[in-house]
């Protein structure tokens, strides 16, 4: 089975997968006002499904062979016969990926979006949990959702400045308490929080490491020549100013340094540099 989306104004005889309830067949007519996920048979029957788990789960830091990615991209395309059809990757508790997910990985100088970054981090967490270093480790990883929520939270902070009744976005508080993403730990049990951050003007990803012990944020950039330090510090301002209040509201236990109005953003200049791409 694969999933595609029904378009308004089309008659489609398919199985409709509701958010709740069982899958059932019916006709979606021109009166359909909302987009729904539909299920249909795939032409991939009787053929071996490509598996790159040996290339990723065992050692996610090792590059996946290009031929393997090509095979999976072809599988996703033929599975749904639609460019934007989605399949679930890494089991039922994994995440959805599309044909374009793999095309971005195969394209030279291609732009990686949130799903590519989140999948990589999920595989790293899976690998870390399966290793003997999981218990007792003092760090955790968040996905790209944190930056999106932090940006919205920062906008609210500026609107509600000086008001005591302002509350942080529940999703952010949940991340601090270890309620997301999958396999993430509570911040109270670690000293370092690693999170991806997108410099939107430069269309470039960097890594932020929140040091909960020193109350500072370190920025690791694989292209130090791409933008000046002040540009990174300005871009990360939403996280730097929001952290002290977020930790306080979530009940995080720490020292008086947490009460600083803004955590310093320190750029690490000797981070490993990428070549090409």
Number of strands: 11
How many structural units, i.e. domains? Answer: 3
Rg computed from alpha carbons, rounded to a whole number of angstroms: 22 Å
Class by helix and strand content? alpha+beta
SSE string: EEEEHHEEHHEHHEEEHHE
Unreliable residue stretches? 1-44
Which percent band covers the strand fraction? Answer: 15-25%
- Under the CATH scheme, the architecture of the largest domain is 2-Layer Sandwich
Calculate the terminal CA-CA distance, rounded to whole Å. Answer: 35 Å
Mean pLDDT: 71
What is the CATH class designation of the largest domain?
Alpha Beta
InterPro entries: Papain-like_cys_pep_sf, Peptidase_C48_C
Family: Belongs to the peptidase C48 family.
Domain Ubiquitin-like protease family profile: 95-277
Keywords: Hydrolase, Protease
Helices and strands, with pairings:
Blueprint (H helix, E strand, L loop, with lengths): L1 E4 L6 E5 L7 E5 L8 E4 L12 H4 L9 H15 L5 E4 L5 E4 H8 L7 H17 L8 E3 L3 H15 L10 H7 L15 E8 L4 E8 L4 E5 L8 H7 L1 H13 L15 E4 L9
Parallel strand pairs: 7-8, 10-11
Antiparallel strand pairs: 1-4, 2-3, 2-4, 5-6, 8-9, 9-10
Helix pairs in contact: 2-3, 5-8
Structural account:
The structure is a single chain. With 277 residues, the protein is α+β, with helices and mostly antiparallel strands. The chain has 3 domains: 1-41, no CATH class; 44-134, no CATH class; 136-268, TATA-Binding Protein. The chain has helices at 53-56, 66-80, 99-106, 114-130, 145-159, 170-176, 229-235, 237-249; strands at 2-5, 12-16, 24-28, 37-40, 86-89, 95-98, 139-141, 192-199, 204-211, 216-220, 265-268. The strands form 3 sheets. The protein has a 5-stranded mixed β-sheet with strand order 7-8-9-10-11, with helices on both faces. A hairpin with a 5-residue loop joins strand 5 (86-89) and strand 6. Helix 5 (145-159) packs across helix 8 (237-249). The longest helix has 17 residues, at 114-130. It is globular. The two termini are 35 Å apart. Residues 1-44 have low confidence and may be disordered. GO terms for molecular function: cysteine-type peptidase activity. This is Ubiquitin-like protease family profile domain-containing protein. Residues 95-277 form the Ubiquitin-like protease family profile domain. One of its GO terms (biological process) is proteolysis. It holds the Pfam family Peptidase_C48.
